[in-house]
Amino acid sequence: MRQVVLPTLLYALATGVSSAGMLPPAAAPPPDRVVLTNGSVIEADSYTETEAGIEIDLGFESLLVPQSAIVRIESSAAERLYSEAHDGTERSLDDNMGEVGEAVVLVRTPVGLGSGFVIHPEGYLITNDHVIEGSTELTVVVYRQATDGLRKDEYKHIRVVASSAMLDLALIKIEPDEPEEFVTVPLSDSNMLTQGEGVFAVGNPMGLERSLSEGIVALKSRLLGGQTYVQTTAALSPGNSGGPLFNMAGEVIGVNSLKIMAQGSEGLSFSIPVNRLKEFINDQEAYAFDTLNANSGHRYYPPPSKSTEQDEQ
Q1: Are residues 224 and 252 in the same domain?
Q2: Most buried residue, 30, 150, 249, 303, by most Cβ within 10 Å?
Q3: Residues 164 and 46 placed together within one structural domain of the fold
Q4: Which of 83, 120, 135, 168 is catalytic?
Q5: Cα separation of 131 and 290, whole Å?
Q6: Does one domain contain both 167 and 196?
Q7: Is 308 inside any structural domain?
């Protein structure tokens, strides 16, 4: 569990030249894809999000697409490692759990555990940097619904793609023995949060798997230790670290990271805003994890066995 020194005691919950001699023109980035409820897809190089919907710049005029007509927006950023949903239809907690439950995972290291969530069907997932602490010996547990109940699938081939201790975010990837597709969750927009709206968290507090807690947004932007967080009343405990904070439409609005643990304090939980997560994913090359670089963090090795100790003596 990482301690953060702040005015109030805080604890973390668990980083060519062409033949003509001219440079070829830079390739334009692929457009984002706006998927509509009628099945149509609009490719947009430039658009602006508003409360009413999105305005797509057509060059000579703007096209307004209402939120009610949008299923999701597939971002081209970071090779579309994540999807942005703009459905906005609120559901019950039970229905939401049925939709997002399989995308929330347990992340285990040699010294502890935390939570995470899958953002890409090929197995890319997000957790906190302080959950993995630079370790490369990771295990991810995916919980899937089966005919005979809940099935736990363990994956031990995990690659750390990017991590940042400053942002307390890590992008890791499950490397299954056989190709398979994972259930994912969409990312929302932190700017669309409103104070008092309902939220819920899913994770593994104190190792209690797939636990759900509910609350509201107490403040959409709280400054702590030089970073801004979404403050909520959803109950979080060690083990929730790296797990998702959802709105009532089942869209990720934050990454659970901190809570205040002091005498008399209650319902003071903090999540990294999802917009900061998007920036981290889009700039993942700047945070690329290198096991040969000592600045990447720490590696945990198994303790010496009894026989090894006797041999050394």
Answers
A1: yes
A2: 249
A3: no
A4: 168
A5: 17
A6: no
A7: no
Residue 278 backbone zone (phi > 0: left; psi -120 to 50: alpha; other: beta): alpha
User: 66 with 207, same domain?
Assistant: no
The amino acid sitting at 306 is K
**Which helix (H) or strand (E) segment is 132 a member of?**
helix 129-132
When the pLDDT of each residue in the chain is averaged and rounded to a whole number, the result is 82
Identify any residues that bridge with 65 across adjacent strands, giving them in sequence order.
54
Per annotation, catalytic residue among 75, 130, 189, 269? 130
Catalytic residue among 241, 257, 269, 296: 241
Please state the three-class secondary structure of 27-43 as a single string.
Answer: CCCCCEEEEECCCCEEE
Is there a single domain that holds both residue 192 and residue 260? yes
- Domain with 134, as residue range(s), is 104-184+282-291
Per-residue pLDDT band for 168 (boundaries 50, 70, 90) equals very high
Is 241 catalytic? The answer is yes
Please state whether beta strands 269-273 and 227-232 pair in parallel, antiparallel, or not at all (unpaired): antiparallel
Asked whether residue 227 is assigned to any structural domain, the reply reads: yes
**Number of domain units in the chain:** 3
Respond yes or no: is residue 168 known to be catalytic: yes
Would you state the pLDDT for residue 265?
66
Is residue 86 annotated as part of the catalytic site, yes or no? no
pLDDT tens, position by position, 40-86: 888 877 778 777 888 888 777 888 888 888 877 766 554 579 998 76
